[in-house]
């Protein structure tokens, strides 16, 4: 069982921690990131208000005291160094004159001068630690790029009196060790102290304690355990007790927040008449260890969930969205804390919350913001049982969307796969482990049909975030001594937790292109784009145009007309076109860039532009049963930033063979009067239909979420006019609302060609 870090605190230590706002989940400032060796024991954090999670006043803890940095001689190079100390890849800006509010305590650094390449701020020149003539009205701040350094982790271990720590907790199986499948759901509770792993005395142990431990280990709930069996077993074993008197309320997100006592070194009698505490946890649906557990959970009648996570790079994390009046919406982060986040995590089948995220850390949502000031005790079975305030768009913006990171069970799936030959740990040829005990070996995956969806599963399984690319050829990466292809025909939906959950050929290997150069590879990233169509604009701008054929030569050249147009009497006659505007937003955490570089873009002389993607969107007219009666497609004539949010600058412009893409927080607008921004409905008969628009339909470019790439509208066509209504993103409605949408009155009487 992989251990999970926790804190230990005496009551006085906890009070002190709360007063200095350094507890996990405390709104301001956040707990400092864990430092690397070059930082010489310093700790760094971002503080102040108002701010986003990747910006703020820089504070440094030295010799146990927090302080700030003066803005005299401060530069972007210094901001780069500090952002790396904080765990971000680089700085995008810096602030002066206490923009995020004045700090308190010492001003540790003044006249800070860095080249930008230093590994630690201690390598930069300054007036010396604590030597400053500034006031806190001159405190410096930084704005970091919202992208984490690979492998950087935030610390959740806090030192307390006498430097005594509880660093980790685990369940150790008492019987059948080594033969039981992961995750481990039952066993002795062990905590790691400075002197090693120790058991917990079960005197006074309660179900509340078990609930907290299970939550920390990634399980939503606990169940009763056969204590008589374990007590009998304990009589035959020796134990090392380090902790006793644990008393939890049951709402704590960490065992460290419970009342507990440590045995002193001179305590000769430990846990008299007691035994090691034993806990049995119930895994969530995703982590049911055996098929029997899965069947038992699936047999229980379950209604549609009213909470979900979107935009997370890893399982159990994301932007929190709730279902209200059949429509999904987000939560404002006001008063968002670990208790509320833990209710969400447990409701979704995970453990308690590891982090309560604010400031749209998991990307901004779109549409409604349903709730604000959610206040949970931690005992509620659902977030909707917590007191909250309803909200309007004027009260909160999507830049304040709340998110969570949940505790997950350790399954060990990352040990069954690895990357080799890449320039970094985030890329390489995919190798999988096959065989049983005593005959394990590593092998390669056939690159046939390997794509973004399969790469997403690999990156998720390895804990490396999203997939930037799924590669079918990896000749440029050295395969070492691994040359055997052991898996082929891999097809994933993109939602699997590990590659062995995807369909594949099994033991029969069928690979069209043989050799190690044609094996599968991936490039992973902690961030990804997320495209979303502005559905209301489609509804507002839709209309019919009868366009003469002599004006459609370029459109015909780019296959933007129905097949019947080929046999038309050119240049006489016309085509009937359903036209509408398309506004595509990037709400993710990375820019959307074409898969192909500029060197391979295709020039189209007729329209006078380059195509960076052959098919960027699909436009379809469907019958209620899904039969396609008209279709269109849109190549990426030009991906650029048409407009952006207030605080975002445009980066992409197509003029003069410029770079193409959509920046985070910007949108690309294809107006209704642009060529090919239509569906040719000349051959469609009157009736009721569904208009469907799908962005990035072939998954050519990786996104954090593909479920919101489709938009649907009801449309009624009488042969002369068309009514488009009820437009919505594919996953914006509840399941029941979607069923009603697809069978609205009149659809059954369609006349279809």
UniProtKB/TrEMBL annotation:
<feature type="domain" description="SRCR">
    <location>
        <begin position="169"/>
        <end position="282"/>
    </location>
</feature>
<keyword id="KW-0325">Glycoprotein</keyword>
<feature type="disulfide bond">
    <location>
        <begin position="248"/>
        <end position="258"/>
    </location>
</feature>
<feature type="disulfide bond">
    <location>
        <begin position="345"/>
        <end position="406"/>
    </location>
</feature>
<protein>
    <recommendedName>
        <fullName>Lysyl oxidase homolog</fullName>
        <ecNumber>1.4.3.13</ecNumber>
    </recommendedName>
</protein>
<dbReference type="InterPro" id="IPR036772">
    <property type="entry name" value="SRCR-like_dom_sf"/>
</dbReference>
<keyword id="KW-0479">Metal-binding</keyword>
<keyword id="KW-1015">Disulfide bond</keyword>
<dbReference type="Pfam" id="PF00530">
    <property type="entry name" value="SRCR"/>
</dbReference>
<feature type="domain" description="SRCR">
    <location>
        <begin position="307"/>
        <end position="407"/>
    </location>
</feature>
<feature type="signal peptide">
    <location>
        <begin position="1"/>
        <end position="25"/>
    </location>
</feature>
<dbReference type="GO" id="GO:0005737">
    <property type="term" value="C:cytoplasm"/>
</dbReference>
<dbReference type="Pfam" id="PF01186">
    <property type="entry name" value="Lysyl_oxidase"/>
</dbReference>
<feature type="compositionally biased region" description="Polar residues">
    <location>
        <begin position="290"/>
        <end position="302"/>
    </location>
</feature>
<keyword id="KW-0732">Signal</keyword>
<dbReference type="GO" id="GO:0005615">
    <property type="term" value="C:extracellular space"/>
</dbReference>
<keyword id="KW-0186">Copper</keyword>
<dbReference type="GO" id="GO:0004720">
    <property type="term" value="F:protein-lysine 6-oxidase activity"/>
</dbReference>
<dbReference type="GO" id="GO:2000329">
    <property type="term" value="P:negative regulation of T-helper 17 cell lineage commitment"/>
</dbReference>
<feature type="disulfide bond">
    <location>
        <begin position="114"/>
        <end position="124"/>
    </location>
</feature>
<feature type="disulfide bond">
    <location>
        <begin position="376"/>
        <end position="386"/>
    </location>
</feature>
<keyword id="KW-0560">Oxidoreductase</keyword>
<dbReference type="InterPro" id="IPR050912">
    <property type="entry name" value="LOX-like_protein"/>
</dbReference>
<keyword id="KW-0886">LTQ</keyword>
<feature type="domain" description="SRCR">
    <location>
        <begin position="417"/>
        <end position="525"/>
    </location>
</feature>
<dbReference type="GO" id="GO:0006954">
    <property type="term" value="P:inflammatory response"/>
</dbReference>
<feature type="disulfide bond">
    <location>
        <begin position="83"/>
        <end position="144"/>
    </location>
</feature>
<dbReference type="GO" id="GO:0009888">
    <property type="term" value="P:tissue development"/>
</dbReference>
<comment type="similarity">
    <text>Belongs to the lysyl oxidase family.</text>
</comment>
<feature type="disulfide bond">
    <location>
        <begin position="332"/>
        <end position="396"/>
    </location>
</feature>
<dbReference type="InterPro" id="IPR001190">
    <property type="entry name" value="SRCR"/>
</dbReference>
<dbReference type="GO" id="GO:0048513">
    <property type="term" value="P:animal organ development"/>
</dbReference>
<dbReference type="InterPro" id="IPR001695">
    <property type="entry name" value="Lysyl_oxidase"/>
</dbReference>
<keyword id="KW-0963">Cytoplasm</keyword>
<dbReference type="GO" id="GO:0016020">
    <property type="term" value="C:membrane"/>
</dbReference>
<dbReference type="GO" id="GO:0005507">
    <property type="term" value="F:copper ion binding"/>
</dbReference>
<keyword id="KW-0539">Nucleus</keyword>
<dbReference type="GO" id="GO:0005634">
    <property type="term" value="C:nucleus"/>
</dbReference>
<dbReference type="GO" id="GO:0030199">
    <property type="term" value="P:collagen fibril organization"/>
</dbReference>
<keyword id="KW-0964">Secreted</keyword>
<feature type="region of interest" description="Disordered">
    <location>
        <begin position="290"/>
        <end position="315"/>
    </location>
</feature>
<keyword id="KW-0677">Repeat</keyword>
